[in-house]
Amino acid sequence: MGQCGITSSKTVLVFLNLIFWAAAGILCYIGAYVFISYDDYDHFFEDVYTLIPAVVIIAVGTLLFIIGLIGCCATIRESSCGLATFAAILLLVFVTECVVVVLGYIYRAKVEDQVNHSIQKVYNEYSGINSDAPSRAIDYVQKQLHCCGIHNYSDWRNTRWFKEAGNNSVPVSCCQPNISNCTGTLTRPGDLYQEGCEALVVKKLKEIMMYVIWAALTFASIQMLGMLCACVVLCRRGHDPAYELLVTTNSYA
């Protein structure tokens, strides 16, 4: 009976190690996705520490690959030292992912203040020139999020670019894609996106941060199961004579 329990725990442990390798790739992908996505919106927030959760999640993903390798070797070779190391590293990563979740919620709450603080400045720096970074950022956001202006298209009236252009038009990135020959003129407001970009940028950045939070929570749960299985194998190995006899027999075989 004890041997069956040990075998089941070992089987689950080996399976979890395979999951850890898959998780390593997924976490690195999520971290990279967050970096790339935030790069598209980096003009709308100034706190570089917002990316800390993404950095940590990539580091955890790299560490998970190593953990999976240690866990597989320790399980196959029946190494008490290896399994103890495996459980200890899992505990460290578990704590780290809990920290990622906390940081994710903290920086997710700060996103709105960051965007509110910087979006007016970015719109005032708009020049309409593609080589200009703020201009590219605004045109990209307006096209991708289907928005125009900060709260709506009328906000463009207060920008330096609008006053200098003097043609009563907003950038063509405000034009709805199903409207042909749209020039951005305010005399045809029906051609333009009606929703402002501020709320949509905040929503998008919060969604991206939630990916990190949910990924950390999911894999933290898996790691808790891994720690439990490793502890079961270690405890059974120390207290079950049948298991010790099995290990000794396998060692001499």
Automatic annotation (TrEMBL):
Annotated PROSITE patterns: TM4_1 (PS00421)
InterPro entries in the record: Tetraspanin/Peripherin (IPR018499), Tetraspanin_animals (IPR000301), Tetraspanin_CS (IPR018503), Tetraspanin_EC2_sf (IPR008952)
Transmembrane portions of the chain: 12-36, 48-71, 83-107, 208-235
This protein's UniProt keywords: Glycoprotein, Membrane, Transmembrane, Transmembrane helix
Known partners and oligomeric status: Interacts with claudin-11/CLDN11 and integrins.
Family: Belongs to the tetraspanin (TM4SF) family.
Protein name in UniProt: Tetraspanin
Species assigned in the record: Oryzias melastigma
